[in-house]
Known about the structure:
There is one protein chain. The chain is α/β, with parallel strands linked by helices. The protein has four domains: 5-134, Rossmann fold, CATH 3.40.50; 153-281, Transcription Regulator spoIIAA (2-Layer Sandwich); 315-402, Transcription Regulator spoIIAA (2-Layer Sandwich), CATH 3.30.750.200; 407-462, CATH 2.40.50.140. The chain contains 16 helices and 21 strands. Strands 2-1-3-4-5-6 form a six-stranded parallel sheet, with helices on both faces. Strands 17-18-19-21-20 form a five-stranded mixed beta barrel. It has a three-stranded parallel sheet with strand order 7-10-13. Helix 14 (337-350) links the parallel strand 15 and strand 16 (354-359). Helix 8 packs parallel to helix 10, helix 10 runs parallel beside helix 11 (268-276) and helix 14 (337-350) packs parallel to helix 16. It binds S-adenosyl-L-homocysteine, iron/sulfur cluster (SF4) and FE3-S4 cluster. S-adenosyl-L-homocysteine (SAH) binds next to strand 15.
Amino acid sequence: MSINNAEIKNTRKLYVESYGCAMNFADSEIIASIMNEHGFVNTNDELEADVIFLNTCAIRDNAETRIRERLKHLRMNKKSNKDLIIGVLGCMAERLKDKLLEEEKLVDVVAGPDSYRDLPKLVAEVDDGGRAINVLLSREETYGDLNPVRLNTNGVTAFVSIMRGCDNMCSFCVVPYTRGRERSRDAQSIVKEVVTLFNDGYKEITLLGQNVNSYLYFGGGQKKEFKKLTTEEQSEAIDFADLLEMVALAVPTMRIRYSTSHPRDINEKVVRTMVKYNNICNYIHLPAQSGNSRVLDLMSRNYTREWYMGKIQMIREIIPNCGISCDIISGFCTETEEEHQDTITLINEAKFDFSYMYKYSERPGTPAAKKLSDDVPEEVKSRRLTEIIKTQNAMSLAKNSARIGSIVEVLIEGNSRKSENDWMGRSDENVVVVFPKANEQKGDYVKVFVERATVTTLIGKTLNQ
Ligand code: SAH
Ligand code: SF4
Ligand code: F3S
């Protein structure tokens, strides 16, 4: 039962499948990096894999149902390959812990988000005939020193994790339990990773965290409030705006995005830094969750509708054409019809370019599950969600239609989904743009004249055609 076992049996094939948010996809690249160092080779074909890792999400019940369905399907692979090792990693592993080993007999490895360095050892334990689990959360782990191995990459855009965990405790949310305490990654290691991506030909990076605006690095990993730092730590402390500036200066020809911002913590310093550097994209993902202050209070979001709208105004005053997107939950505990209408009016007032919209799904162990009643009937949640989607779609179409006749700068990411004859890319404001191919290449910046618009896409032609 030693790590050498894994080293001896190297060249085994690893297949990683990712679910959930961008942070989980970024983690899979850390997982691959750790496993590759121990001799495992990546494969995109699950049928030839010796080890299959599902990097899972627990945010809503249906995310977990999907994983269970997938596990059922993987039973077949195990039948044809008796030595196949199946691991459940990530947030669902952290939430269910050893229950997962009891419930899902074919799972050999369970590993939480902070225990990935242990994966080769856990696999070695399975080689020795056992089943293995590590779900310890850490206050320091950021995997900052590792070089992520880019998986399923388009070679143009990449994610870079800048922090882990979340200390916000929104009452509906499982993330603080699955990812642990918030901690910020060493700023120098972030810049180093970004420069490596630049040298490898990448053109755009997205800095990732659950609440990037509370990034604070002061030479130590754990989270502390600025005012609680020593004078020496304060003089060295790097906040999110400082980090953005460092990255913008390090790679002046790369596009820089970031996600996710919390309305409580986004500030003028960050928005002014966006203006100062041309390569920081004019786009902010700013989840509101609800447009009603009573519901926001029950959600423990720590802001009101007015506070939220104040932030939107601040952003639009400084960057008038800034792309802004939102996350919305329908049918949270005790939400009334009038309160739901407040969410509808928020969409129209804030004029989001697009939103990710969900029905509330109670997560066991969260403050909402313990203290509030999930009393909005399923059909009401669904109907409200439909109304929210309808409102947002109309807003998205109006906003995209207003871009008809303008020229947008697009970074080409690859073929459009519908046709190999068209390119797909994004504008600075993060709107998807599709146009016919001429002599451009993936990774080029092109100016596109917008001719038509749909809810999700701008359609046009390059100016040099
Ligand atoms: N850190 C980010 C959100 C991460 S989770 C933030 O605070 O904005 C992504 C989104 O999933 C959330 O914004 C929320 O809209 C949604 N979500 C989280 N928990 C949920 C639940 N229990 N039911 C439905 N949607 C949920
Ligand atoms: Fe969840 Fe709130 Fe943290 Fe976002 S900020 S991850 S919604 S607890
Ligand atoms: Fe899901 Fe975990 Fe991300 S619960 S949304 S994968 S942080």
